[in-house]
Write a structure and sequence with these properties.
It contains 8 helices and 10 strands. Pfam families: BcrAD_BadFG.
């Protein structure tokens, strides 16, 4: 029978429907979370079920995760997103020893062994270095997020010295006023985020392979920059945004 995992984050809601026995992904979906976590969870689960060709009522079990997991009354169980990212990343890349996740609200580095969390560090005190900050940046520069990544790949990074999202936003507006090219600003922000992740990763032993998850992992420019800063290769899943939901679905299949 099919099972499902639903990951409701601060920016996006994700769902994965999994064949319980064969451990094959039948369908997945990603939608903006908006202001209502419960509604976002219901809608993304329905979308994933449509993609899988199954009815929500036909799911044997649903596991919720993410910041909005407590708002999912249909979930049979809720699990932290840290555990789900560890499980999902390890299922995709069995040699994973470290998971690097940049979400909408925080950044995490998770030490993993056989799919289980051994330790983790996270930055949840400031929006700088998260998906939410990149949304603000894309608005300032007048670019969609995919365009932002393309611009960063071609730009020459300028220094973004502010470590606070509010001050960084002011700094970026000042750089634009000085005539700095948007591509150079985008490249500078990407480099700043990669260095923040390197700082977090320095607090966790880099054993085994590194796997990068979250929405920012969809940017080849940033993934390459992160690997260069860490000095090690980085695995990037085909659909990095849904790794947490996949991990939740794997928990549901147990």
């Amino acid at each position: 029978m099919p099972v499902a995992g639903v990951d409701v984050g601060s920016v996006a809601a994700k769902a994965v429907v999994l064949d319980e026995e064969k451990k094959i992904v039948l369908g997945r979906a990603v939608l903006p979370t908006g202001w209502n976590s419960r509604e976002a969870g219901e809608q993304v689960l329905q979308a994933a079920c449509r993609a899988a060709g199954v009815e929500p009522a036909g799911l044997r079990r649903v596991v919720g995760t993410g910041y909005g997991r407590v708002a999912l009354p249909f979930a049979d169980k809720v699990v932290t997103e840290i555990s789900c990212h560890a499980r999902g990343a390890s299922w995709l890349f069995p040699a994973t020893g470290v998971v690097l996740d940049i979400g909408g609200q925080d950044s995490k580095v998770i030490a993993v062994e056989d799919g289980a969390v051994q330790d983790f560090v996270m930055n949840d005190k400031c929006a700088a270095g998260t998906g939410r900050f990149l949304q603000v940046l894309s608005g300032i520069l007048g670019m969609e997020l995919p365009e932002l990544g393309q611009a960063a790949a071609t730009g020459k990074p300028v220094s973004i010295s502010s470590m606070c999202a509010v001050f960084a936003e002011t700094e970026i507006i000042g750089l634009l006023a000085q005539g700095t090219a948007p591509a150079d600003i985008a490249a500078g922000v990407y480099l700043s985020i990669a260095r923040r992740m390197r700082g977090l990763a320095a607090r966790i032993p880099l054993k085994g392979e590194c796997t990068f998850t979250g929405g920012l992992a969809t940017s080849p420019a940033f993934s390459g920059l992160l690997a260069a800063e860490l000095g090690v290769p980085v695995n990037v899943p085909d659909d990095p945004q849904t790794v947490g939901a996949l991990g939740a679905a794997l928990v549901a299949a147990r």
